[in-house]
Amino acid sequence: MTKLKHDKTIYDLISRAKHPEDKMRLFIIFFICSPHMGDSDLKRYEAALSEAGCDLSPIHYIKRWKSYAKMASSSNHLEGAGTKTVNVFQIGVGSNRGRHAIVFVVGGGNYIEYQNLVDYAKQKTSAGSTKRITYGSSTLANAKQFLKQLSLLGQEIV
Questions:
Q1: How far apart are CA 92 and CA 76, in angstroms?
Q2: Record's Gene3D superfamilies (predicted)?
């Protein structure tokens, strides 16, 4: 799919979405998944979203988050942006070592994090040895609450 055709599709989807929150969530997904978006393209989307009555504060936070993610991915370390990736199956005692991990997030948890952990466990599972992960968090936000949190974080940046 060409860039022009891709942009037109996203614009069409944004224009067809009924609620401003839906338009913003759609754009955020597109923006996060885009490896690079030029300033002129971003300004075009921001203008369209603003015209549609969207609060642009979440975009400010996502821009900062993407810059941190880019810095973290350019280094060879497994640490970045306040997080550290570890092999969750290294901790354990005796014969139970490495079979079960408990991951608890202080703050907002989400389905994507959980699914990434499930996929990770599948990669680490060998024949006859199952790996289990129990996932929890102190809060779970629905789509509207998540957008509100991004908006508050974006307002702190500006």
A1: 27
A2: 1.25.40.60
